[in-house]
Amino acid sequence: MAHANAELINALRRTAEKLAKGAAYQWGHMGSCNCGNLAQELTKLTKAEIHQFAMQGRGDWREQVEEFCPTSGLPMDLLIADLLNYGLTTSDLQNLERLSDKRVLDRIPVEKRYELRHNVRADVVLYMNEWARLLEDELLPQVKIDLSFMKTEETSVFAHQV
After folding, report:
1. 1 domain residue, yes or no
2. CB atoms closer than 10 angstroms to residue 44
3. 140-149: long-range contacts at Cβ-Cβ below 8 A with a sequence spacing of 24 or more?
4. Nearest one of 82, 95, 84, 80 to 128, comparing CA atoms
5. Helices (H), 56-162
6. What per-residue confidence (pLDDT) applies to 160?
7. 74: three-class secondary structure by DSSP
8. What is the DSSP string of 25-60?
9. From CA 18, how far away is CA 42, in angstroms rounded?
10. How many folded domains does the chain comprise?
């Protein structure tokens, strides 16, 4: 599972929101499918650029991720390496393309969980939002907030009241 971090969580939410609002979506197009839309958000590449990179390799996202070689120099491998730098794993990319990560699916109500279709915009939006919530739930316990400054303010407020 992805390394939970704010940048990835926000990218998942922004991608889901854009898809919900009508961003280009076509599951059979490497630049505007599930992974392609998230890749657009994280890398700022266009759907056309992502698709062009993918056409230099073979297969869909799952197959290209399976054949991923970080030292090949191929544009698609460089793109995948960039996505991994955001905390994603190769399994995350394969699961996103098919909406198949068990931990994400377990959080979706049972009546909807078994009806998800990997190539339906609304299902992709639901999956991405739930994945973002899962990552956020993992990240929040790690966040430490220093509130020591409040103790000095409280002390000074009480000192002025006396």
Report:
1. no
2. 8
3. 142/4
4. 95
5. 61-66, 75-84, 90-98, 102-105, 110-113, 121-139, 148-161
6. 57
7. coil
8. --TTSTTTSHHHHHHHHHH---HHHHHHHHHTS-SS
9. 13
10. 1
Question: In the prediction, which pLDDT does 50 show?
Answer: 96
> What whole-number distance in Å separates Cα of residue 98 and Cα of residue 86?
20
Ranges of residues in the chain with a pLDDT under 50 are: none
The SS3 of residue 14 is helix
Domain that holds residue 57: 6-161
- Residues sharing a CB contact under 8 Å with residue 104, sequence separation 6 or more, in sequence order: 95, 127, 130, 131, 134
Residue type, 122: A
Give pLDDT, residue 58.
Answer: 82
What pLDDT score does 40 carry? 97
Both structure tokens of 52: 């062009």
Tell me, what's the pLDDT at 158? 55
pLDDT of residue 64: 93
pLDDT of residue 162: 53
